[in-house]
Amino acid sequence: GAGVSQSPSNKVTEKGKDVELRCDPISGHTALYWYRQSLGQGLEFLIYFQGNSAPDKSGLPSDRFSAERTGGSVSTLTIQRTQQEDSAVYLCASSGPGTGVLETQYFGPGTRLLVL
Amino acid sequence: KNEVEQSPQNLTAQEGEFITINCSYSVGISALHWLQQHPGGGIVSLFMLSSGKKKHGRLIATINIQEKHSSLHITASHPRDSAVYICAVALNNTDKLIFGTGTRLQVFP
User: Fold this and answer.
1) What does DSSP assign to residue B94?
2) Which positions in chain A touch B86 (Cβ < 8 Å)?
3) pLDDT tens-digit profile of A37-78?
């Protein structure tokens, strides 16, 4: 079937605005990750969802960042009151049916966010 | 000091050469992943290792848990192998991956 999809592919916003980034994982995958890749930096873990368990939010950089996963499928990452340092590529990955870190992760194409 | 270190940071090779990329880590892990990021940005998972060695086509990945070290080898390299190769480790008792900063490989014809 289809791979992981993300939308939008690019987003330009003004400082202080809120943005929502969407991830559609591979059907049947129970684990879903959000990562961030800032320009010239490595990948950074943000949040992890596994089935119906409480998400691991330990990587979220501030309380302006939140994410939800509805019905165990689609996930939305929300950034409130965006700052210029939020500019990055936001990547989503999914895996399953087991534990995400012990299985192959399938990455989406990413959303490139630019905060002016 | 980063918990995951890769070397070299940049690597150039002639087509056909044998390539080795190294990854060292300083934490207890349950698994190690090798990823490939193409120039367009897309990321593909190459291997997930918890011990020993895995092979897929011209790619070989090994891990030595005692020495906290992994290597990714590419045999008979080709220009299409040009990409950034990223090592990531899964911390023990967590569901998080910590990433190295990547090795940029360019293979020239």
Assistant:
1) S
2) 42-43
3) 998 788 999 999 998 888 999 999 999 999 999 887 999 999
